[in-house]
Every structure is written in structure tokens, then in C-alpha cells.
Amino acid sequence: MNLKPWREIAVPHEDVLKGTYQQAEFAADISRVHAGSATAEYQDPKLFFQRTFITKGMEALLSSVAQRLANKGGDPVIQLQTAFGGGKTHTMLAVMHMVSGKAAANNLAGVPALLDRAGIATLPKAKIVVLDGINISPSQPRKVEGQVINTLWGELAWQLGGVDAYQKVASADQSGTSPGKDTLAEVINAHSPCVILVDELVAYMRQFEEGKSLSGGTYDSNLTFVQALTEALKAAPTAILLASLPESDREAGSQRGVAALKALEHYFGRVQAIWKPVSTEESFEIVRRRLFTEIRDRAAADDACRAFADSFVACAQDLPGETQEARYAERLRSAYPIHPEVFERLYEDWSALPNFQRTRGVLKLMARVIHRLWQDNNQDLLLMPASLPLYDRDVHTELTNYLGGGWDAVIEKDVDGERSESAELEQREPRFGALQACRRVARSIFLGSAPSSINEGARGIETERIILSCLQPGQPPHIYRDALGRLEGRLTYLSKSNNRWWLDVRANLRREMEDRKRRFSDGEVLDEIRTALNRVMGSGSFLSHIFTPSVDVPDDWSLRLVVLPPAQAWARSGPNEAKNAAIAALRMRGEQPRQRQNRLLFLAADGDQVMHLKDTVRRLLAWRSIESDARELRMTLDNQQIRQASQYREQTSEAVFRLVREAYKWLIAPTQAVKPDGSLDDIAWEAFSLNPATQGLAKEVDRVLVENELVIHQWAPVHLNKLLAKWFWKDGATDASAQDVWQKTCSYLYFPRLIGSSVMQATITSGAACRDFFGIATDRQGDQYRGFSFGSHVAVYMDALLLIEPNHAAIYEERNRPAPAPSPDAPNMPGEKPVVPGPLPPAPPGNKRLTRYYGTKELDPVKASLEFAKLVSELVGLFSSDPNAKVRVRVDIEAEDSRGFQENTVRAVKENAKALGVDGNFD
């Protein structure tokens, strides 16, 4: 469907298009209309009703006025009491033009129909009295045709009947005392039908000081007049009084004004009929009729509204629930070409501000908006909150006038304009720039949240309502969600909490955080990354050394993972600091050459992610310092900001752990190949990528080590046989020390890397039972082997073991096989003496089997867990691998404290010892 923008369908009034409207044109002045000096749209009855939408409340009031003047019932007194700018004066003007007789009722748009419904065939012409509390002064009498008029009752009589009517209240007017209700009823009846319009009465009354008499009477005499007037109207069947009163104490002004309002409400309340205020839906039509002359293509307008409604249904999860109701489509149609959300924000949020007039303020603002957007050839389908041209000085001044100081900087820096952060972000990211997504989002947040900086209650506007303020048919909602996320980290005055966003003149905590990030040294950042790595690493089959200098990494038989600091990152192109650091650590341990090079592996960060990781860590440190300062009262934050700082700290902490896993993704293993001529190639470095989604980083390292055979957990005897044949059984050598083989696998990078000596021991144990791989012996003296075994299951002890080349073992076995002894039952050969069996000679001392082992080692209490695990792996495991051996392990724990142990320590030790089955006691 080819949808048309609003500017091709709705036609603004000429003064809106040209920008020739003036603020005064939106302010109805009842005294000027009564005097005949107002602008044409207010002075001309026909033009007035052409631009006036008769609401249900106004229709009921006009019908009541018509019935009253026609002596067919109706209320004698009607009080108009609505919020500031709620249409009170406009309603009075409608009454004035309907009954003035200056234009026939048939020529007033909407009036004939309401008269028919009220049962009025002919509307009588009425006398009109206007008592405007702002136009009349209680201390400055008015001279008319030589007559001095002092009071409201003098004005009433003069406007009703001139000199004759005035003479009936002249004495009361001159003395400043109220005439009686009968006198007033007589004057009113004599000049009926009549309509008395009283506007801004509170503004008049609050000028009287306590106990002081002015030319307009006293405070009390004026209250008495109001009471008498309302009573008099009951006796005047074709007269009616309409009085406007402010809705709130704030509009009443001073304490005297509030007191006057309460008193007037009391007197009017005795006889009044309350006028119904304008509903939001009716406001749509009021504003549209005043700003637009016509909707030239209703079908195209309906197509646009239908497209919006359909897109709202399709994006239900991203929008407020109300958009899924069928009546929202009708709201779109009623408000066209203005988006209902514009009215919602202006009438619900902005109208609550002290100086924002409900209807007049909306008209003034929207006239400026339409004028600027028309000039800029705006192509939006509707006039939306996101369309608001806050880059226009007149538009944003119109709004900021209601908010107080400081908002110009907010708009210019964060919200709108070519140099705003929102615009700059759109320039850097074309996907945002194509839709002006950032500026549309920022405008929507401003319109929906700025009043909450003054009003009490929940601050801000929900994410779903922001998207509603921006989204047009065919656009993906996620683009605006993404823009919100980017703006959150960029804007100085934008804040967020509990899915609500708001702008404020105070810089947000993020700006404070950004300023604090610079305070933290590289050392503090490194410590925080080390802490995070310790958290995400977990336990593995190796010992971890996080950011440990090479000199402090032991040169022993344990497999060790050296985690390099962020500055020594792995780079796939350009200088590779990780490789350089690994080479240095592999070759030297301080000033000494490293012997066991094949026991080191390295973990390095990705060079492309280090900067982001460091920046996030600085943010975390900054949030912590803000929380700390607020807690220690070194800075003042409100409760909302304290919660916000805590939330940001938690989110940033989670981000640090995630980024550490993502950054430390390169497992680096050194290898070395042997050339065909037997010489060694240069050390090669292989980098293996880790999966950051794995829960424990150490487990992921173990997985990669096993899958890529970087570390061997199980080794087949055939591989050991090949290694021995290539490197140890050569140049006349026929055996090799198992311990030497194990130690050389720890030293040379061209040897396999075993997880520990237990792997070598298990391989020898398995291979010793077969005659294909090697024979074993405990020692060799000359050409004799002690403890020789070939193809038998035997217990293997690594520290005293020789591995014998299988062919040599077979020859040795054959050569040392004893001659078979003759059978005792065999007959003796002639001349031979019989062999008498006797005791076997004692075995040579060297072949005696050892049957018991007992060892003791004192453990460092800090490193006891690690040292004990090593003892079990490399010592106890040698015995437990033989099913015939019986192994017992006992743990002795002895602790002393000359001061005496704390009570809680004693209690905890006893409880834990009982649970663990430890036999121990204190003395």
C-alpha cells in the first residue's frame, strides 16, 4: 500500500502555514469580544462556530441556556470550573454568539441541530452582561456617559438597562454595599431574557484587603452580592448566570484568592449546575478544527490509520496494551493527522504543569510544530511525538518556558539539532541515521518525561510508549530499542530505571561515572581483571598462574597454565605481545634458563577486545566509588539515584565477567618439530580458540587440551615404545630409565606433553604385561638386570625402573633361562649317583622383595590442599594402582595457639570434625 504523508492529506489554516499566528490569537478575551475589538475568529459568530467543535459538555450547556431563555426550564446558574486552559472562556463566547442575535442561529455551525434536540423552535435574542474580573478594577471607578460606576452590581445594572436600570442600584453602588436580592431580581426581570457572564471573579475578589473599603465595596459586600445575585436568578425565569471559577487553589493565587474561591464555591454550589469538562477525544477535534481547514482525502487518511493499527497488532509485544484494542484504531482516525500519543502526553503530562493551559497551550505548541514541519517537508505519516522539531528554537522555547531553566542545554546537547549526541550517533551508524532513530527516540523521551521533573509521581516514560511514539508502518521496532540502548550509554542527561526513561537538567550518574573512570590506575584495573579471572577460571587439571611474573612461575614437573596480562594480548596480525611474552617465559625463569619447558601452556586475551574490557572494568570501579561515596555521605544522591547506581554496578559487574570470558579466548601451546635430518625446527606457537559460553574457563581449557591432544591423559604403550626406539634405544643403548624418560617429556617440546607422571606409570604398567613393547627391570649391574620382567603383570615403581628394548629383553630372558632340573622319578643312568632333593639355596640378597613402605611429610597449612593432592597423585597412586597392595593413608593435624583458641573456632572444629569422622580433641 502506497501511504501518503500527513502533509499531502491535511491542509493547515493559512495563518499556521505562514507562521503569522500570534499568541494572543489563541487567548479568547471575553471583554474584547463584548466591546467588539477582538480578532475576526472570535468576533465573527459565523467564523467562531466554524472553528469551534461543540463538545458534549458544551452542547448540554448551550441547550440549557436556550431552554432557560425560552422559559422552558434550564438551570439559573451554571458554574464553569475546569483546569487552567480548559475552555471556560471559549464556552462563554459560544453562549454570547448564540444568543446575541448578531447572526441567525441557522448560520451558526452545529447550533440548529442542538436547538432541535432541545425542542427550541425559535431562540430569543438576549441581553448580554459581561462582568470580567480582570477588566474591572475594585479601586478605579468606570465613567460611562457621564455616570460613575463603582461596583459589580453597578456594572450589572448599567449593562442591562443603562441609566434607568442603574438608578435602581445607584445608592448601593455609591456606598459600596450590596443591593438586596429583590432589587436585583427586579432589574434582571425588567431586562430579560438576559445572560450574565461572570469571568475571573476570584481575580477580582482577591484584591480586597481585610477590613478595607474600596470604591468597589468590600470583600464581604461582594460576597453578599454574589449570594444575592444567585438567589435573584431563581426568580428570573428567562435569565441565566454563567460563572467561571478556577479548578485549583494554585490558580486562585494568594491566600486571599484561595479563601475567595472557597467562599464563591459555597455560594454558587447552592444553585449551580456543573459544566462537564472536555474529554481527550473531543480535544482531538477542537485542536484539528482550529489548526486544519480540511482533510482533503479521507480515504488516504483512513488507509494511514489502518496501516498504523495493523502494525501495532503485528508488534504487540513491543507496544502498550491499549494499542491492541479495536477502539485505538478509532482514536487514530479521530486524532488524524496528529498521533493520539501527542495528545496523551500533552493533556495528561504537560497540562499538569502550573502554567500550561490545557487547550490553548496545545494549540500554541502544535501551531509552531506544524509550521516548522511543513517548511521542512516532513514526510511522516502522522504528526508524532518523534516528529517534534525540537531543533527549532521557537518550538523548544515554547516547551521549556513551562519547565524552568537548564533545558536548553539538555535539548541542544542530547536531544535534537545537528550537534546533538543523538545526531552524531546517527551519522556514525547508518542504520540509525536512515530513520533518524536516535533523534526520534530522544524527542519522544523529552515529550514524555520532561514534566515529571516538576510533577510528583513516577518519573519517566516506559520503553513501550517510546516505541509507540516513534514507530511507523513498515519499520522494525528493534531499531528503536537498539537506539535506546546506545543512547543510554552516551547521553549526559538521560536516566533509566525499571523500564522507564527520563531526561533531567541534572547530569545523570553516567556522566559522573565517565568523569570518575579516569581516576583509576592501570594497576587497579589489572587487579580487578585478575579477580574476575579467578572467579571465572574454576578448577582444572593444571595449576593456574594469573598475571604471575615468569620468575615466580616454578620450574618443576607440574603442568602449569600461565595467564598473560591484558597488555600481552594475542594478535592475529601486527605485533603479537602474547607470543613475545610466552617466548620469554619459556626460555628463562628470571636469570636462569627454564629446564622444563614442556610443562607450560599460556592463556592470552584477544587484542581486539582488551580496550573494551579495560574500559568496562574502569566503569565498574567508578560505579563502586559512587556507591561508596553515597553510602559514606561524601556525595548527595536521592533514593532513585542510589538504586540506579546499584543497578548499574551490578550490570557492569556481570559485563566484566562476560567480557573476561570473551576476551581470554586464546590458549597458546608451544611445539617443536624434528627435521628429517634429526635437527630441531624453531619453536612454533599454536593458538586455539576457547568457547566463552562454557561455565568454567578451566574446564574449557581442559576440553581444548584433550580434543587437540595438547596434553595426554591416557597413553598407549605403543606410543611409548616408539618414543623409546627413536630417542633412547639407539647408539648401542638397549635400555632407558623410566624416570629419565618422564623428565625429558617435561623438558623437550618435541616430546608428548603428559598430564602427570601417573600417565607414564599407567602406560608402563599396561605395556609391561605384553612382550611387544619393552621389558622392565629395577636396576642393572654390568650385563645383569635386577627385578627383570618381560610380559608379566608386575607392580611398577617409576623412581627405580629401566625400560628394556623388547628384542634385547627377549635375548636376555633366553640367555638367563635356567636349565631344567631332572625329575626325581627318572631312573639313574649306569654309573650315576642318585640326586637327593634338598633345601633351595637362599635367594641372593639383591633380589629380596620389599614388603612395606611408610613415609611422613609435613605440609604447609596454607597450601595443604594442593600438596596433599600431589602426594596422592604421584606417591599414593603408585601403590593403589597394584590390586595386590594394601594402602592406608592417615592424616595428622596438630594446631597450637599460645593465647588459646577462640570459642567459635573450638565449636566449629568440633562440629566439622564430627561430620568428617576425624578422631581429635583439644587439651
**How many β-strand runs?**
24
3D shape: elongated
- The CATH topology of the largest domain is given as Rossmann fold
The strands making up the biggest β-sheet line up spatially as 3-6-7-2-8
CATH architecture of the largest domain: 3-Layer(aba) Sandwich
The count of helical stretches stands at 38
- Helix amount, in percent? 40-55%
Main sheet properties: 5 strands, parallel
Cα-atom radius of gyration: 49 Å
In terms of DSSP E residues, the strand content is 5-15%
How many domains make up the 3D coordinates?
4
Which tags fit this structure?
923 residues, alpha/beta, Rossmann fold, 5-stranded mixed sheet, 38 helices, 11% strand
Question: What is the strand and helix layout of this fold?
Answer:
Layout: E1 10-12, H1 14-18, H2 30-35, H3 40-43, H4 45-50, H5 56-69, E2 77-82, H6 88-99, H7 111-118, E3 127-132, E4 142-144, E5 147-149, H8 152-167, H9 170-175, H10 181-190, E6 194-199, H11 201-205, H12 219-234, E7 239-246, H13 249-252, H14 255-269, E8 272-274, H15 280-291, E9 292-295, H16 298-314, H17 326-335, H18 340-348, H19 360-375, H20 393-400, H21 407-415, H22 421-428, H23 430-433, H24 437-449, E10 461-462, H25 463-470, H26 477-488, E11 494-497, E12 500-503, H27 509-517, H28 522-537, E13 543-546, E14 560-563, H29 577-587, E15 588-589, E16 592-593, E17 600-604, H30 610-631, H31 639-663, E18 666-674, E19 680-689, H32 697-707, H33 717-727, E20 735-737, H34 738-747, H35 757-768, E21 775-777, E22 779-781, E23 784-786, E24 802-804, H36 806-815, H37 864-880, H38 903-916
Parallel strand pairs: 2-7, 2-8, 3-6, 6-7, 13-14, 14-17
Antiparallel strand pairs: 1-9, 4-5, 10-12, 11-12, 15-16, 17-18, 18-19, 20-24, 21-24, 22-23
